[in-house]
Amino acid sequence: MTEIVFYVLAISAVLSAILCITQKNPVPSALWLVSTMFALAGIYVLLHAQFIAAMQVLVYAGAVMVLFLFVIMLLNLGRDGGSDIKKGPVALVATFLGAALVAALVAVRGTSVAGLADRLNPGVVAGSPLGVVAGGDVQSAASFTNAIGAVAAPMFQTYLVPFEITSVLLLAAAVGAVVLAKRKL
Amino acid sequence: MNPSWIWLTIALPFAGFLVNGTLALVKPDAKRVVSLVGPGVLLAAFGVAAAIFAGLWSQPPEESIVVPLWAWIGAGALEINLALQVDQLSLVMLLVVTGVGSLIHIFSVGYMHADPGFARFFAYLNLFVVFMLVLVLGSSLPVLFVGWEGVGLCSYLLIGFWYQEKANADAGKKAFIVNRIGDVGVMIAMFLIFWSIGSLEFTDIAKRAPEALAVGGTLVTAITLFLFLGCAGKSAQIPLYVWLPDAMAGPTPVSALIHAATMVTAGVYLVARTSVLFAMAPVSSMVVAGVGALTALFAASIGLRQYDIKKVLAYSTVSQLGYMFLGVGSAAFTAGVFHLVTHAFFKALLFLGSGSVIHAMHHAYHATHSHDDPQDMRNMGGLRKDMPVTFWLMLLATFAIAGVPPFSGFFSKDEILASAFGRGAEHPIYYVFWAMGAVAALMTAFYMMRLIAMTFFGENRTGEKERAHLHEAPAVMTGPLLILGVLTVVGGALNFPTFWLTGPHHGLESWLEPVLAPAAKLMPVHLPHGATEYALIGAAVVIALLGLTAGYRATLSRKIPVAKDAPEEVGFAKVLFHKYYIDEIYQSLIVRPLVALSRLVLWKVVDQGVIDGLGVNGSGGLARGLGWLGGRLQSGQLGLYVLVFVVGAVWLLHAVVR
Amino acid sequence: MLLGPSLVLSAILFAIGVIGVMIRRNAIVLFMCVELMLNAVNLSFVALSTAHGFGGQVMVFFVMTVAAAEAAVGLAIILAIFRHTRSVDLKNINLLQG
Known about the structure:
The structure holds three protein chains of three kinds.
Chain A (H helix, E strand, L loop, with lengths): L1 H21 L3 H21 L3 H26 L13 H21 L3 H8 L8 H6 L12 H10 L3 H22 L4
Chain B lengths: L6 H20 L4 H27 L7 E11 L2 E9 L1 H24 L6 H20 L3 H19 L6 H32 L4 H11 L5 H17 L8 H4 L5 H10 L4 H8 L1 H6 L1 H22 L5 H21 L3 H35 L20 H15 L5 H16 L5 H28 L7 H4 L7 H16 L16 H16 L8 H26 L14 H7 L4 H52 L4 H20 L1
Antiparallel strand pairs in B: 1-2
Helix pairs in contact in B: 1-2, 1-4, 2-3, 2-4, 3-4, 3-10, 3-15, 3-20, 4-5, 5-6, 5-10, 6-8, 8-11, 8-13, 10-15, 11-15, 13-14, 13-18, 14-15, 14-17, 14-18, 15-16, 15-17, 15-20, 15-21, 16-17, 16-18, 16-20, 17-18, 17-22, 18-22
Chain C lengths: L2 H21 L3 H26 L2 H31 L13
Helix pairs in contact in C: 1-2, 2-3
C-alpha cells in the first residue's frame, strides 16, 4: 500500500517538475512547482518525517512560492508573449546531460560515504569527520511516536549554535532584500 | 701564522677591488687613495702569504691542509664546499702571485699615473688577483674553475681597457672567445672525473684515481686530453695560442701580470695539480710534451721577425709556456713549476722593462705631438744611454731567458730539457721533443738579443726633437724592476741541480715532493747522469751564447730603417712577419664559415624562423588563441556556464563511481 | 523500505532542475529550478534520515531557511535588475561577457 502511494506521488512529482520547467508562462510554472512540493510533502509523510512535511507545505508551498508569484505579478511578467525556452541542440544537450547526471547519481547511491571518502582521498581512513557523520546515532525514525520531539532534540541540543546562526542569516537576508528592492533608502 | 687565515689573502685584494671600484664610479680622480689601496692590499696579502709560508717552512705538511669556508653546491652525491687548499704547490703559486703581483701593482702606479681610468685599472687588477688566488687555492676543480673563469673575465676587461679603440676591444673579445673553447674541455673533464672517480676534490682525485681508473686507459687519456684542451686555451698553446699576442693591446703592466707571470701559467698549474692523472696517461703526457715543444719552436720562430717590442715578448711568452708544458709532459712537474716561477720573475721584468721603454717613448712622442708608433723597435735604438737602469735590468733578464748560467732561466730550462732527454730512453720521440726545445732555445737567445740590440744599442732612430724628451722612468717604476732583477739573477737557487750541492737537499723539488709523490711513483723522472748530464749542460750554454752573439751581430750588422720608411719584408721573413698567416687561416677556415653559417642558417632560419617564428610568436599566438577560445566560453550566458559546470560534475561523479 | 526509490526520485528531480537551469532564460523560472534542486536534495536528506538518524531532518530545516533567505534576496535582485533593464531575460544580462 505504502509503495503504491509512494509511486503515485513520485510520478506526479516528476511530471509536475517537467511541466514546471517547460511552461512558457512563469505563472503556471510556479503553480506546477507548488504541485511538486505538495507531492514531496506526501512522500515526507511516507518517510515518517511529518514535521518536515508540514514545514514543506507551510514554508515552501506557502511562503516562498507566494513570494515568487507576488514578484511575477508585480513585474507583470505573466502576459509576456515570447518564449524563453531554448530549443534545438542546446535542449538536446541539456537533456542528455540531465540523463547522464541521473545515471551518475544513481550509480553513486550504492557507494557508502566512507567508501566514497576513501576513494576520493586514499589514505584518509575511517575515523575521519565524514565517517563520524555516516556512523552517527543510527536510530530508526519509525520508532519515535513523537515526530516533532524527535527532530527538536538534535536541533536544540547538537545543532543549537547553527540554529541560532540561521536566525542571523534570516535577519541579514531580510535587511538585504529591503535594501536591494527599495528605490531610495 | 695559522694556515686557516689563508682566506685573508683573497679577502684583502677583494676589499681593494671594492674600494677602487667604488672610487672608479664615484670619484675617478682620487689617485692618491687608489695608489695607496691598490698595491697596499696586495702587499698585505703577500705579507699574510709569507707569514703562512714561514709557519709551514720548518714543518711542511704531509697532506694538503684544506680550509673549508662554506658549503657551496650539494646535489646528491655531488658535494662541493668552497674550500681553500694549502699545500706546497699552492703556497708556491700564492707567493708568486702575490709577490710578483705586488711589484707590478707598484710599477703600475707610475705607469698608469696619467691615465683617466686609473681607479678602474686598479679595481680590475685587484679583482684579477682575487680570482687568480681562488684559482690556485681552490681545493676542488669547480672552485678552481670559478677562478679560471674569473681571471678570464679580468683578462678580457684589461685587454680591452682602452676600449675606445675598436682594435683593443676586439682583442679582448678574441681572448675571451678562444678561451671558451678551452673551458669546454675543462668542463667535460670535470664531468668525466666526477663520473669515474666520484669526487672533484684534488685530494680525493689523487687518492682514488689509481684505483678508479686504469693506467693508460681510454678514460684517463680522455680526461687528461680534455683538461689539456683547457690548459691550451688558458696558457696559449697550439692551436689556441692566437689570442695571447693580440692581448698585448692592454696596458703593459697587464701584459706583465696576467699574460706573462700569472694567468697564462694557470694551465701549467692545473697539469701539475692533476699530475696523478697525467702520470697515468702516457699518451696524454706525450701529447702535452709534443704540443709544448712544437709551440716553443713555432712561437720562437715568429718572434724572430716581429718589430713591436711587446709582440716579441708575447711570442716569447707563448714559447716559454711551451717549455713548461714540455716539462710537465715529460713528467718533470717540478721542473715545469720551477720554470713557471723563474719565468714569472724574468718575463715580468722584461715586460715591465719594455713598459718603461714604451713609457719614455710615449712621453717623447707626446711632447712633440708625433704619431709614430712608440712600441715599434725600429723607432728606438741607443736607449741605453737614456735609460741605463732599464737597460741593465733587461739585459739580465735576457741572459736569464736565454739560459746563460748562473741566471735563473738557465737552471729551469736546463732541467726541462734534461727531463725530456731523459724520457727519450723510454719513448724515443722525446729525443725529437728535446731537439725542438734546443732549437727553440737557440731562437730565443737570438730574438731576445735582437730585441736588446734594436732597442738599446746602435744609433737612436726616435727623431731629433724627440730625443731630448727620452728619460729614465721614475723610482716607483724602477724600484720593482730592481727587485725583479735580483730575483731574476738568484731565482735559480730555488732548485739547484743535485751535483752542485752535496747531500740530498734539492730546494723546490724536495719542497714539492709530498704533492707530486703520487705522480712520481707512477711515472718517475729519469734525469741523465754523469757525462750525458755535463754534455747537455755544455750544449745548452753553447746554444745560449751562440744565439746571443748571432742575435747581436745580425741585428747591428746593417742599418735599421725607421718604421715608416721600412721596406716590405720578402721571402720567409715575410711569412714570419705575418706569423705564418695563422690568423688569416683561422679567419677563412673557421671564423668566416662560422659567420656565414650563423648569418644564413642560424640567424635567418633557426633564430628568425624557428625561435622567433615558432617559439616566441608561436607561443604568443597559442596563448592568444587559447585566450580567444576562453573568451568564447565567457559568453555571459548563464545557461552555458551551467552546461559546462554540469559536464564537469558528471565527469567527476563518473570518475568517483568507476 | 523506500530509501532506494526515494534517492532515485531525488536524483531525477535534481536533474530536471539542472535541465531547467540550462534551457531557460527567464530569471524567475531559473530561481524556481534552483528551488526544485533544493527540494530534491531535501528529499535525499529525509530519505537518508530514516537510516542514519534525525540529523538529516535538521539539515532539511536549515536548507529551508537558507532557501527562504536566498529567495528573498534573489527576488529583490531580480526586482532591481528589472527596474534597470525592463526585462528578466538573462539574454540581456550579459555584462560578464568575455
